[in-house]
Amino acid sequence: MEESVRDLRADSEAPFEPAGSRVVAEVKAAVTARRYSTEEALQENEVRYRKLLNAIPDGVVVYDPQGGVTYVNDSFVTLFGWSEEELRGRSIDFVPPDENHGTHEAWVKASEGEASLLETKRLTKDGRLLDIQLRTAVLRDRDGMITESIVFHRDITRRRKSHKALKRAHDELEKRVAKRTKELAEMNEQLMREIADRRDVENRLKEGEERFRAVFETAQDCIFLKDGNFVYTHVNPAFLKALELPEAQVIGKTDNDLFPANEANYIKDLENRVMEGQVMGSSYNLSTRHRAKTFHCIRVPLRNESGETTGICGIARDVTEQKALERRCPHSVTKYGSVVMEATLEHLRLAAAGDSIVLLVGESGSGKDYLAQFLHDHSRRSGGPYFAINCAALAASVAESELFGHEAGSFTGSRGRKRGLLEMAEGGTLLLNEIGELSQELQAKLLTFLDTHSFTRVGGERTVKVNTRIVAATNRNLESEMAAGRFREDLYYRLNVMSVRVPPLRERKEDIPFLTRDLVETLSRKLGRAVPPAVDDSALEILSRYDWPGNVRELRNILERSLILGRSDVITADHISIPRSKTKAEVNEKEIPVSVNVSDHRSMNEALESAKRLMIASALRRCKGNVSAAARMLGISRDALRYHKKALDMD
């Protein structure tokens, strides 16, 4: 009896379980699992969103509704100097006092859904004043409340002259984006009404997608995404405009379908390294529908939640005009009078057709650096960067860092990672001038790079692979250096694939008229002279008789001195000052002592004219009236002597 009572009491105290509770529990579990899956998608979108912002060259700042900074990308840190830690949760005080007009109005426009584009000025952390183009995007939640503002800062200091054209293009693009954004917003609102049970999570997912699309669609740089097979999956309007192709001819295609074989193979080599985990930045030429263009492109790997690389994100900028300006050489002689120099240029044109290492051998000042630039400009790498480094000017302690770069903390004072010149010249050419001055340790590391096209930064562990063409130059006899043990024999034979001897100026004096006229024009621009002076035959005669131990560099210096000291419209023999060595016998025999007195009754010009008369008369007297001998004694030409005699009324 007591046992029955206990059983009844236990049944009465047990919780009530309605019918179908197991089905309800299973539904709750399924909803929870779906919510977790959606949150993972949100996290993945947030990672992709931040990677995309960091890959953009523009400085990006994300503000909360109260105006506090929640995020800045790497380009903003590079442009203005503030780090994300310094700005997080704060407002940025970098508006000049007289440039506060329009900033608030631009934000108000963006908050009302209008396109906001403002050109203004901003101060960097170190006080520099920049011309900045601001673009603002305001994001709202489903209730219409502002959740955050995204502001893009682009440095347009150098492109101020093209401001109007850029603004028109940007306004048109903003209108298209606003229209498309409105359509997407309407579609998303309908979906949120139909799926009320996932309203909050779907709203957050929608906000992430909107931010990604706003950046993708409004960016003026070319943005593209590829899958693991290098097939284009997404491209923005700027990319299609640059390639002059419709979207249907790009999506689903590879570079082999769009570009010539040599260009496609180079891009594939870059993207193979990206798929291995490298971030690649390079400049190269691409053939579009109407003309070849030069692009600077940064490619980053896209990874899944497991860390595997599944695709590529690239951002490219058309730098055709900028590269055209950079390729303007200090002197632009393309045709010479000497056979030996024309033969040298022909050898370089043949070398430019391939990617082999070229060794330029010649005296100091003979123009090896100019010929290296000539080789780069006539090669298929002309769209890539060109760097030159003088190995003789590098201290042993910094030479390795300059060439190969270093990691943060690799030595005292190395606060961050630095890319070396080999890495910066990706897709282009690097000139190693005076390579005979490299230390034995660096020679060994350079030899390894030439064999593998890869290296490790100072203090680093990861191997970096680059596609950079090496041009070496030296004024030393490397064979003698090998015999003396100062230069590695294996490195010499690795460099000496194609050796080009640069003839000294004394062996090609036929080039002096061409070089002189071109250097005078270049130096006149440097000195601010609107019209370069002409060079008469008497000056060219003096220049042609000199042996030029300093080669083209010495010729440039003498012409620059002539332009500084003489302001006439014609450079004559009187303006040319050629160094003249003397023997001891000549010093005693041909020295012409002259004393000059300046009194109250005679000006300095009159005293100098008197001194000139005395010198000319003394020289003619010693040479018994022989004009040529007197001119040699005075260190001037026959024409110059006649000019001075006529000017001084000594005929």
Structural class: alpha/beta
Could you tell me the strand content as a percent range? 15-25%
What composes the largest sheet?
Answer: 5 strands, antiparallel
- Total E-strand runs: 19
Terminal residue distance: 158 Å
- Determine the CATH superfamily of the largest domain: PAS domain
Mean pLDDT: 80
How many H/I helical runs?
25
Total individual domains: 5
CATH architecture of the largest domain: 2-Layer Sandwich
Low-confidence stretches: 8-20, 581-590
CATH class of the largest domain: Alpha Beta
In the sheet with the most strands, the strands line up as 2-1-5-4-3
Fill in the CATH topology of the largest domain.
Answer: Beta-Lactamase
Shape summary: elongated
Q: What share of the residues lie within helices?
A: 40-55%
Q: Radius of gyration, rounded?
A: 36 Å
Describe the overall structure:
Helix 19 crosses helix 21, helix 23 crosses helix 24 and helix 24 packs across helix 25. The protein folds into five domains: 176 residues, Beta-Lactamase (2-Layer Sandwich), CATH 3.30.450; 98 residues, Beta-Lactamase; 171 residues, Rossmann fold (3-Layer(aba) Sandwich), CATH 3.40.50.300; 76 residues, Helicase, Ruva Protein, domain 3; 64 residues, Homeodomain-like (Arc Repressor Mutant, subunit A, Orthogonal Bundle). It contains 25 helices and 19 strands. The chain has 651 residues and is of the alpha/beta class. Strands 2-1-5-4-3 form a five-stranded antiparallel β-sheet. The N and C termini lie far apart (158 Å).
Please summarize what this structure is.
This protein is 46% helix and 17% strand.
